[in-house]
Amino acid sequence: MSFESTAEIVHAWVRGWVASRGAADPVHRPWGFTVDVGQVKHATRHVLTADDEATVRKVAAEVAAPTVWLKAFTDPDSVVEWVGPDWAVDEPGWLMSTELRRKRTVVPDGYTLRTWTRGGVVRALVVGADGSFAARAQIAPTGHTAVVDQVETAPEHRRKGLGRLVMHTLHNAALDHGATVGVLGGTPDGRALYESLGWRVHAPLVSLFHRPA
């Protein structure tokens, strides 16, 4: 499956993200989607598929309120200028995808891998010999696409192949659920891992939260 536009992959990402996080169904807007997240510091997010200056400025002005977030997929410097000083930028991100292929998983000595599925979302957890947290991730298959989410490795367990282990585990699980393409929002910590596994960047992912000066 190939994406014909950034808007198409954004739609797939939103659909899988809300399933992964248990958020409300996305509401379609002329410029993208509105999603109620329901967290104390993240009540609602507005995800823009539009990337022109006039639309970004208009939406940012209309939805500005504490605990509201914006997600945009165009040049970060331009977005920051368009939304104005009342919006703060979170860490850089990238919208990424890959063709899912079945992978052999090898659990390093001293670790245990556990997986379970709840509400259609598959979770993978790696613990150390003492049972403490080492790494985790989850994936939400939604038809032909599946969204990888919340990938994390404890600092003391990095560079031991655990990120690759959980990603391969989730790739296989998504294939078992009928998905053929993976989508994710990458962070600076994760981008190198994802690219080493064949993921490619489609667009910048700019995350902003409302914080009046």
Overall mean confidence score, pLDDT: 97
Per the principal axes of the C-alpha atoms, what is the gross shape? globular
Low-confidence parts: none
* Helix-strand category: alpha+beta
Q: Provide the gyration radius in Å.
A: 18 Å
Strand content: 35-45%
The strand count comes to: 12
Q: Alpha-carbon distance between the termini?
A: 44 Å
| Number of helices, where a helix is a run of at least 4 consecutive DSSP H or I residues | 5
Helical content class: 25-40%
Q: Secondary-structure element order, as H and E?
A: HEEEHEHEEEEEEHEHE
| Largest sheet, strands/sense/barrel | 12 strands, mixed
Protein name: GNAT family N-acetyltransferase
GO molecular function, one term: acyltransferase activity
EC number: 2.3.1.-
Organism: Streptomyces xantholiticus
Describe this structure in a few short sentences.
This protein is of the alpha+beta class. The chain contains 5 helices and 12 strands. The mean pLDDT is 97.
